[in-house]
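Report of the visiting student (M.T.), summer placement. My assignment was to run the structure pipeline on a short list of targets and document each run. The first record concerns 17.1 kDa class II heat shock protein-like.
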Amino acid sequence: MDLALRDLGFDPSMIGALHDMFDFMDETTEQKPQHPSRTYIRDTKAMKATPADVIEYPNAYQFVVDMPGLKPDQVKVHLEDENVLVVSGERKREKEKEEKEGIKYLRMERRFGKLLKKFVLPENANTDAISAAFQDGVLVVTVEKRPPPEPKKPKVIEVKLLGGGESSTTGGGGVQATEGGGQQVQDGIPGEVKTD
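After the run finished, the structure tokens were exported:
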């Protein structure tokens, strides 16, 4: 932004005053919940400007993120809320060196600033099996899949005839029998059997 303002003929001392004014405006708007914060806007822009591919393999998901100009130690990969994969990094300009050596950009098309991407992981993603590799400005994050759950088999319950095949009826209309342990059962309820 500084370079664009200088190109428009703004005095460098005015640029500092403009930054202070914008910072004050940001602090004011951050206090009001109806306006998005400066951080939210910056993160949204960073997410839009960070290209990525998501690939599904039979046993894993792969997230391929372009992060040109960064070194592996400048890239961060972490989980938020147990299922949101976050990839971030920042590509900074060497402003102090540029000003000190009198370097002036005539054209700037390459992007500097924050790189950010968030992915909501599917339910079958194994968050304990995540690996990341970085080469030639490309980050590849692999998240293994959990094996599919085995289908539940119905539990078969053996039906036994009470009393070893002997049953008798009483005048009360209920069935009397003896369970395997010798306990008497009447009308399906263990306990004493009353007879008339």
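Helices lie at 2-7, 12-31, 38-48, 95-100. The longest helix spans residues 12-31. I thank the supervising group for their guidance throughout the placement.
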